[in-house]
Amino acid sequence: MADQTFKVDLTKPLVFQVGHLRASYDEWVHKPIIGKDTPRFFENDFMELMTRTVWWVIPLVWLPVASFFASSSARAGIPPCHVAAAVVGGVFMWTLMEYCLHRFLFHMKTTTYWGNTLHYLLHGCHHKHPMDALRLVFPPAAAAILAVPLWSAFKLLTPAPYSPALFGGALLGYVVYDCTHYYLHHGKPFKGIAHELKCREITWTITSEFSTRDLESLPLCGIGCSELSLRESPRKLADYTTTRVHDLS
Ligand SMILES: [Zn+2]
Ligand SMILES: [Zn+2]
To answer: Does residue 3 belong to any structural domain of this protein?
Structure first.
């Protein structure tokens, strides 16, 4: 049942408050606070530190790991051109995984205390504070926890000598995705629409028309979280963003 009376106190650590919003959480989380401030998530300093990640940590941590996995296939005797092809295949596998994660997990509707809390930590915080530069890329400690079962799945589902290169490719795809997502928010992606991009929550996925077509069917969640492909031309992107801005005003 919706707790209409509960109000989140933005001056206090947020994570253990948002669950109390119950059915009101979805509406609350999609009313973004457009500001570059980094709100406090946890009272505990260590927990708080684990939620703050500067963008360059992502390539710094994950590119060596991706290289290690890809080279494992080479050490297992796979020819270099096959390793390269498997890495490219892994990037495409990441694309599919990213789409599914965002579509089905990150935009899941939750109403329970722990459902809301987990959703906020996973993705909701990015919708609430889209310009918080330290909460945009995924913290490596959390990503490492997810990477373990994922590696097991790769080993189970793909031919053994190719598994490491495919997994390395997926990690490479993840690095490119997270850095590009950061750049779309905090860089200067396309002249003329930078303002809209900065004022609107834009979530992009590495992919393709697959995601872009689907975005039209996605519910426009308050501020308009959108899946944008870099294949979109700047003009089309500008039209798209402007349309959404007008739709929402
Ligand atoms: Zn975003
Ligand atoms: Zn989103």
So the answer is: no
124 alpha carbon to ligand 2 midpoint, in Å? 8
State pLDDT tens for residues 23-52.
999 999 999 998 889 999 999 999 999 999
In a domain, 78, yes or no: yes
CB 168, CB 69: distance < 8 Å: yes
For ligand 2, the distance from its centroid to the CA atom of residue 84, given in whole angstroms, is 31
Measured in Å, residue 73 CA sits from the centre of ligand 1 at: 34
Give the separation between CA 224 and CA 237, rounded to whole angstroms: 14
| CA 72 – ligand 2 centroid, Å | 34
Q: For the chain, give percent helix, strand, coil, nearest 5.
A: 65, 0, 35
The residue segments making up the domain with residue 109 are 15-248
* Separation of CA 106 and ligand 2 centre (Å): 6
Closest listed ligand to the CA of 200: 1
**Proximal ligand: closest to the CA of 201:** 1
What does pTM read for this prediction?
0.77
Residue 5 lies in a domain: no
pLDDT tens-place string over residues 151-190: 999 999 999 999 999 999 999 999 999 999 999 888 876 5
Element (H, E) at 177: helix 163-186
As for how many domains the chain has, the answer is 1
Which of 89, 87, 122, 128 shows the shortest CA–CA distance to 105?
Answer: 122
> Would residue 10 count as lying in a domain?
no
User: Residue 182 corresponds to which tokens in the numbers above?
Assistant: 């950061």
CA distances from 224 to 78, 131, 134 (A): 45, 14, 21
Q: Give the total residue count for the chain.
A: 249
